[in-house]
Amino acid sequence: MTADILCLTSLPPHLQAELEDRFTVHRLFDADDREAVLDDAGGSIRGIVTDGGKAVDEALLERLPKLEFVTCSSAGYDRIDTAALKRRGIRMGNVSPALEDDVADTAILLLMAARRDLPRAHAHVTSGDWADGSYPLLHSFTGGRLGIAGMGRIGAAVARRAEGFGKEIGYFSRTEKPDAPGRHFDDLTELAKWAGDLIVCLPGGDATRHMIGAEVMAAQGPEGILVNVGRGSVVDEAALIAALTDGTLGAAGLDVFHDEPTPDAALTGLPNVTCYPHHASGTVEARGAMAQMTLDNLTAYFDGRPLPYEVSL
């Protein structure tokens, strides 16, 4: 007998077809009557396919008494109640290894764009101002220090790239990582003061909300750059707007925002901000690998094999 799976999101057509060949699939994502699907199938559901934007909360879990496993097609899982999963003994997989390289590449891209003042330099050319004089001298990207907030898989991938540019690495994490490059800091403000430039790779959630605030930005200093490829909620955007406007902080490169897809124009309109539309993993290669790993996690669990990537709850 095949396991019953509840799909809160869809996979690419060829993988969705494979999923539906392998399991008994209940498609909540395109159901005309979602309540009817849950009423009819909730008691038999053993697995969930979801993404970081769909809620898997107490209300849903109460309706799925046989649930054993959740597979998430993104690295972030802010809307999945992991504490509730843990209480129920439900395991979970996500796809962090499939996207770490592209997200790390984007982090370095945003840092370099900010350091070499790309938005304003671009405007200098397109506006015709270049004819009135040369662009001011900037600072080198190679060398110097870099702070990384969050030394998970993505943070480690950022560190590897930064070392290739001759940067000295410091990082913030809850515990020191024996295999991580560079110096461990258990205080974000101290890391910001030491490094100046800071790349945020932290997950969202209550524990990290506004962890990057005015104190951290002030510690970075007027030449400092803040890059965020983690979650928008980690950075206090009001403090960021103030710091970038009054010169407390030099520049920012942002892939994520508090309000998506309509971020605050007071932030995105600043000349010292480089914006990216939460698209760090938005490559054909990464998205294909993420979808495949979503399915692979599910099949591995129900086949009794080790998961390609399990989230520690």
TrEMBL record:
CDD domains named among the record's database cross-references: HPPR
Assigned keywords, A-Z: NAD, NADP, Oxidoreductase
Domain D-isomer specific 2-hydroxyacid dehydrogenase catalytic: 8-311
Record GO cellular component, one term: cytosol
SUPFAM superfamilies the record matches: Formate/glycerate dehydrogenase catalytic domain-like, NAD(P)-binding Rossmann-fold domains
Annotated signal sequence range: none
Domain D-isomer specific 2-hydroxyacid dehydrogenase NAD-binding intervals: 109-280
Keyword NAD belongs to the record: yes
InterPro entries per UniProt: D-isomer_2-hydroxyacid_DH, D-isomer_2_OHA_DH_cat_dom, D-isomer_DH_NAD-bd, NAD(P)-bd_dom_sf
GO molecular function terms noted in the UniProt entry: glyoxylate reductase (NADPH) activity; hydroxypyruvate reductase [NAD(P)H] activity; NAD binding
Homology family: Belongs to the D-isomer specific 2-hydroxyacid dehydrogenase family.
Name of protein: 2-hydroxyacid dehydrogenase
